[in-house]
Amino acid sequence: MFYRPEDGHGLPHNPFSAIVSPRPIGWISSRGADGQDNLAPYSFFNAVAYTPPQVMFCSTSAKEDRGDTKDSVGNIRETGVFCVNIVASAQRDVMNVSSGPWPREVDEFGKAGIARDACHEIACARVADSPAALECRMTQIIELAGRSNFMVLGEVVGVHIRDDCLDDGRVDVTRYAPLSRLGYRDYAVVREVFSLKRPGE
User: Fold this and answer.
1) What percent of the chain is helix, strand and coil (3-state, nearest 5)?
2) Domain 13-189: what homologous superfamily?
3) Could you report the per-residue pLDDT of 78-87, keeping only the tens digit for each?
4) Model confidence over 10-20: pLDDT tens digits?
5) Which residue among 103, 129, 178, 198 sits deepest, i.e. has the most Cβ atoms within 10 Å of its Cβ?
6) Which one Pfam family would you cite for this protein (predicted)?
7) By three-state DSSP, how is residue 175 classified?
8) Global pTM value
9) For residues 102 and 108, is the Cβ–Cβ distance under 8 A?
10) How far apart are alpha carbons 144 and 193 in whole angstroms?
11) Where are the domains of the chain?
12) Average pLDDT over residues 79-99
């Protein structure tokens, strides 16, 4: 089939996010200027540069108590920092709880019973038992075409790696099976890894 997004796809559900998959999940922790912690997963997330290390995530909807966006972007606008927590497959249920449309004053760490630790380089909480966490200083918030579409870019200024996720000095994703987002309400986990050398290596 072929369709133009502006004309509609004619299917029971939008296939776009199923086509662009799997996508890593950035479990974004942030803190507002009032000290309120927030934790929410975003599947429009990825690393975008090595030197300096940089990441991005996109928020694509809004809440009534946040105007044109959601709590994560609202908090980052106020404080300029956030932390990306990597989601292990064992954390899928508590991650899902944190995805709810909770009011601004709800602390998702408490709501889902998620242990938190302080970040080292920024004033923000992080998920204590996440396999890895990236402390970030926001560099840009870019308004994208469409309603309430914002891309947040950040420079990674601190990296946490859980010791049991390292094997001979390398991060071994099979030790925690990162959760990834597919289309619709579907997810997948990484359990099998293989290597390929580039031509000439």
Assistant:
1) 20, 35, 45
2) Electron Transport, Fmn-binding Protein; Chain A (2.30.110.10)
3) 999 999 999 9
4) 999 999 999 99
5) 178
6) Flavin_Reduct
7) helix
8) 0.96
9) yes
10) 34
11) 13-189
12) 98
